[in-house]
Please model this.
Amino acid sequence: MSDQPVLDRPVTRRAVLVGGSLAGFAAFLAACGTSGTKTADPTTGPATAGPTSALATSGPTSAPTTPPSPSAVLNWANWTYYMDVDPTDDTKFKTLEDFKALFGTTVNYQEVIDDNDSFIGTIRPQLQGGQDTGWDIIVVTDWMAARLIRLGWAVGMDLGNMPNVTANLQDVYKGVSWDSTNDHHVPWQSGMTGLGFDTAKTGNLTSIHEFFDLKYKGNIDYLSEMRDSIGLTLIHLGKDPSTATTADGDLAVAEIKRVQDAGMAAVFKGNAYAQDLTAGNILLAMAWSGDIIVAQADLATLSFNVATEGGMLWTDNCVIPKGAVNQYTAELMINFCYDPKIAAQLAAYINYITPVKGAAEALVASDPEMASNPLIFPPADVLARLKIFVGLNEADEAHFNEQFATVTGLG
Amino acid sequence: MGYLARHRGLVPYLLLGPGLLWLFVFYVIPGISMFTSSFWSGTLETGYTFSLDNFTNYTAALGRFQPQFIRSVLYGGAATLLTFAIAYPLAYAIAFRGGRYKNLLLFLVVAPFFTSFLLRTISWKIILGDNGIVFGPLKDIGLLPGDFAVLQTPIAVISGITYNFLPFMTLPIYVSLEKVDFRLIEAAQDLFASRLGAFRRITLPLSLPGVFAGSLLTFIPAMGDYVNAELLGNTTTTMIGNVIQNQFLTQNNYPTAAALSFLLMAGILLAVLVYARILGTEELTSGGR
Amino acid sequence: MATQPIAMGKPPASPIARVGRFLDHYLLLVYTGFAVVYLMLPVAVIAVFSFNDPAGRSNFVWQGFTVDAWLRPFAIPGLGDSVMVSLALAFGSTIIATSLGTLIALALARYQFRGRAATNFFIFLPMATPEIVLGASLLTLFVSVGQPPVFPTGFLTILIAHVMFNISYVVVTVRARLVGFPIHLEEAAMDLGATPWTTFWKVTFPLILPGVMAAALLAFSLSIDDFVITNFTGGTNTQTFPMFIYAKNRIGIPPEVNVIGTVIFAVAVGMVALSVWLGKRRQGREVGPADVFLNLHKQPREGK
Model:
């Protein structure tokens, strides 16, 4: 470009033409960019009254004079692998399509959650300001749900709109200490944390102590989720995670530190451990049951076991955040998913533990093999070995997090 | 234009106006609010109180996260040096030997940016995998021990940072090399300077503004980077960026996170001032006038 | 003492000097070749893995060849939208930031005014700020101004954020080019009767155009590739391509994403290759005396 004399600059003229057309193109894109993204309606805050917000009930106590009707759009943020992809069309989710057929609502379903803290971190300012976060349903793990309820950032649902939930929620989930009115959260799926490994390389592993065996050094992943890593370490130390104290937490952290100092070189990750297992970069990982089932499609020799000494049970819960515009429709959606037939449909795909009574029975007819899969419908003896991490208050949680950060290199 | 001709002094301010206003509203104001929050004590649930005594947030953060600070400087510096070593000959080649292919070559340098950095980093994970394309065969034929691994080591992190910031270093160096008047070099050679001498005394000094800009554009984001350390590193390679992210999003410890951010910025500014002093460059920062 | 000037040539070349010249001639070429390969290697891997046929979701290990992903690249929901959003953001923020930044660079490089040093420093600050700080502080601003928010998080807020961090990079890049700007040319043009406006467009702008284009290129790439700031300021409703990939990275990036990445790359390179080819075709134009005069400050570098 700059080699040529100033006046004789075909590039200059062309550059102007190109620049001009780029600008025009940009304007065009910007115009259809704004309409193409979902920055319209559902996200423009509760004060802009549109037809959808008029329809959504504002709380469980206000009795609408006209029966509310489902909104046109529902915004749902979820983790990955938590909704059944339609076998005939992998751009759609079957359950969401079924819901649309029944109620006419298009569900804006986004698999944007990969970490409780990061996700809530991005909508925290709106929650603090009491504004619409843009989501009607979010799915967060127990302890985050507890924190949201404590801070008043979760709304109470109208259980009158959700008869399926009342009827079909498994008893083990009822009466948690952190939701005194039992209407601020609804379990979505449960999962187990245990040993994830490649049987072709390691054989069948069943003991919790494998995680701390130095023969895996350089080839092992721990979980970046504090409660899982600390929980499994506590089990390894012979303690019970469901009654752990901060002193126990310190012991667990010390144990992890000991084994790291001895050369274990474990890496702390989220779901990415599945890729490492498949690619052969590691031999053993602290793993979540459902992930392994999915990864088996890529590497059939992958396997999952709850350790004989014990494992962790965690639940991801549906919560309606404060300021949500389409609360009524959200309640309808959750209720829809608690219909045993729909729950069976979801369970067949999701590979985690469903909290809905009757789902196993509904599945037996269509997919008996799945209905007897111990990772989706664990037998009683496995369930008995699973522990739920103790509920922490803010100060203890901060202490655990800080201590855990010292071994993940972040403290 | 008559008004402007009479009030020539106004022209620079008019030119500066729009851009500076944008920066003021969308950088300074949020920055001030973040600075205030670094003097808070308290938690999300119990509420925050402001107090100047909380400058201890800064000292505590500095003491506790010293390893990560040092590591950020080391990795960032190493990556900058590596990037310079790779980029300078490349920019030189494009500027002086590029001919009509200059634009194309320049674009090839920048083009990898058009695929997402995440895709590129993951590609490096595939390439450098323990049993991947590069190391798998080498291990099979026995050239490398079976447990040799580059992934999750400092080397992988530094390589990742280097690769990601290569265009940042190449473009500014190219821009200032491209302006070098070749007749100066010819003149030097006519006076019996060797090629190397001509380079050392003519080209290199003239390219310093570009080197300076490129180094800054590389070192500064490199110090604050956390993605490479997250994807390619392990717990002993965490950088201060990882800590800040963790404090912000996981620990929800905003006062500490804000304090760390300002400490990082202060460190960067200090390093830049030292660097500018070494290069002897009041001029460089002020653009030569 | 000769009365006639003696043509002074270079001393005869020794073998070492000849080898040196040979190396010098080809070494750079070879090095450039290696450098380009190094730069393109991950891109090549991305392209290759777009043909992968993973049984599950992990596109990490080669499993089989298929062109399925190429036949239906937008099959993944959200992919097409996110690409459109990214492109729109990149074009928009590039144009705005390059304009604002070039003006600032012009002011800084050519005028002495009060507060110049301070402005220099101030422009530099956003580059020294960690992205996560920029993102988090901006988000707090957007959410707290106005009830309902004057800036609802979404496309507009991301655009604002991108322009904000791009301005500094544009200023730095253009300014490196402005150092040593031949101001005498402008004076000459105005002596010949050109108005300041004409002078700007016919003399100044073409001369700074390479720097401006380089800055625009940089701004475009920064915008299209940005993740951290976009993640914070986009809220959770607007997804750009990097955000989409990051979300999918948890479980495995499908080959369709590789397809899009490869296509974007190919289109970008193709456009530049096209412009180079067009440039070659037009090289046979006549050059007049004015061109020579105006070109005094620069020699053509063909063949060197």
